[in-house]
Amino acid sequence: MVPALKQTGGEFCRFFAVGVGATLLHLVVYMLLNWLFDLSEQDALGITLTYAAGYAVSFVANYVVSLRWTFRTRGSVGKGLGFAFSHLVNAGLHLLLLNFFCSLGAGDALSMLLIWLTPWLVDMLPVLGRPESLLPLPVYLIVVPVNFLMVRYFLKR
């Protein structure tokens, strides 16, 4: 395998692992805040704010781990600003898509599908049957590849 391709593949695998952790942290904070404030899919502003708060918490953890482990590089002001810029674009894309999918009723559709496919899972974890809990899933399918390319660019240059 070409060394540069092998390095990029390893970086993407580490990026994916860190991203899974950051995504789980994001979702836990988002769901916890939704539960604490008793929000539903109809509370668009509240959902947007709790989503943004979860994103902010995961952003900090993601930056530290991305520098030290994913891309194995040292931090600098320029890299920090580039990382912040890429995540600002990413956060905007997240919120835009979250509200877009909310307006389409994607949470309801995903909730019904999950209840139909795995009723036992929803019985065990009722939060998974709530439409607002599932709204981030289609968002992640779009933003993860875009984010990898932007973060890699800013941290590896």
Description:
There is one protein chain. This protein is mainly alpha-helical and 157 residues long. Helix content is 84%, strand content 0%. The longest helix is centred in the first third of the chain and has 34 residues, at 3-36. It is elongated, with a radius of gyration of 17 Å. The chain starts with a helix and ends with a helix.
Number of helices: 7
> Approximately how much beta-strand content do the residues carry?
under 5%
Largest beta-sheet details: none
How many distinct beta strands? 0
Assign a percent range to the helix content: over 70%
Q: How are helices and strands ordered from N to C?
A: HHHHHHH
CA(first)-CA(last) distance: 22 Å
Number of domains: 1
- Protein structure class: mainly alpha
List the topology elements:
Elements: H1 3-36, H2 44-70, H3 77-104, H4 106-117, H5 119-124, H6 131-134, H7 136-156
Helix pairs in contact: 1-2, 2-3, 3-7
Structure characteristics:
157 residues; mainly alpha
Task: Write a concise synopsis of the structure shown.
The protein has 157 residues and is mostly helical.
